[in-house]
Structures are given as structure tokens and as C-alpha cells.
Design brief:
This protein has one domain. Helices cover 30% and strands 9% of the residues. It has 6 helices and 4 strands; from the N terminus they run αβββααααβα.
């Protein structure tokens, strides 16, 4: 987290750093020589940002939806869950700043930095979480292998379509049973 925050501090295109990686098959990283990747989707589990990015945060969901629509962006490509989550935020049936942060990022064409191995566990799916029920779908095996390592960064700040497609495919699966 700290290495990424320092490395991308002045990269206007990068809005945040995440410590969470979905439990996707490790084979998607075969031949991938870097410790991080970029993705347009934001995930609020274990993340950090900079003042320069957060100053762009827009609390008005309707305004953000109009900005995204004006750019012709299809939110479905970020996962089947997006449209219902955005609608729930718009209808005030959920109170989540993360929805608006994701939309802010999309409206600005921004990216998040993700590790190739998860560095946190989300324990909120045990029934105690505010926005989720009980599920094992997002359970990960935490690693601190990157904690003291000097990270290898990609030379370009772009999404890796192979990784992001595999992650969206995972998100779109109804349960972990289908992912294995």
C-alpha cells in the first residue's frame, strides 16, 4: 500500500490503491511479471487514496450517473452487480460512499491499483457486515508476502484486460462453487 501510494502519488490517472484481490484463479497471473495491476473498478476493501483524487469525489449520485451516461460508458462491463448497486444508492436504500467513489472514478477515467496477491481479508461476510449477508464467495487467503518486498511495477498505467476480464467473470458468478 505504502509503496503504491508513493509511486503513483502524482499520477492523475490513478485515484486509489487497493489491498484486496478477488479470489480469482492464480493461473491468470501466469507470465505476468508485476506485483500490481490497474483496473477501472473500485473496491472499497482495504484501500487508500490521495487528497488530489479525493477532492474530485462527487456525493450526488444522479449527477454522476448523468456524467457517466454522457460519456457513453456501459457500467455493466464492470460486473453484473453494478447497476443494482448504483440504483440502490440512487434510491437511498443503501448508504455507501463507495458507490459514488466508483462512479467518480469512472466519470474521470481513473484507475485503481491492485495487488496480484491479496493483502487483506474481508471479514464482513460473516453476517456482521452492513451491506452484505453471509457468504464465502469473497474469502481470500491473506498474504503478507509483498509486505517488505520491493514491488515490481508495470511500466505503463493501463488495465490488463486478461486480469480484469477474469475478475469481472468471477464477480458475475453467483457463488464460489462455480469459480472452482
Amino acid at each position: 500500500m505504502c509503496q503504491c501510494l508513493k509511486r503513483y502519488e502524482n499520477e492523475e490517472k490513478v485515484f486509489c490503491v487497493s489491498a484486496y484481490l478477488h479470489p480469482v484463479k492464480s493461473s491468470i497471473f501466469k507470465g505476468y511479471p508485476y506485483d500490481v495491476f490497474f483496473w477501472k473498478r473500485f473496491w472499497s476493501w482495504g484501500w487508500g487514496t490521495w487528497r488530489r483524487a479525493w477532492e474530485k469525489y462527487e456525493p450526488d449520485t444522479e449527477k454522476l450517473m448523468n456524467a457517466v451516461a454522457a460519456k457513453g460508458i456501459n457500467l455493466k462491463k464492470f460486473g453484473k452487480d453494478i447497476l443494482s448497486t448504483v440504483q440502490a444508492r440512487k434510491d437511498n436504500t443503501i448508504d455507501s460512499w463507495a458507490v459514488n467513489w466508483f462512479l467518480t472514478m469512472i466519470a474521470h477515467g481513473a484507475l485503481s491499483v491492485y495487488p496480484v496477491r491479496t493483502c487483506i481479508n474481508n471479514i464482513g461476510f460473516d453476517g456482521s457486515g452492513i451491506h452484505c449477508g453471509i457468504s464465502g464467495k469473497y474469502d481470500t487467503r491473506f498474504t503478507d508476502i509483498l509486505k517488505n518486498a520491493k514491488l515490481v511495477f508495470p511500466p505503463d498505467i493501463n488495465e490488463d484486460k486478461k486480469i480484469t476480464t477474469a475478475t469481472v467473470n468471477f464477480i458475475n458468478m453467483p457463488s464460489m462453487r462455480n469459480a472452482l
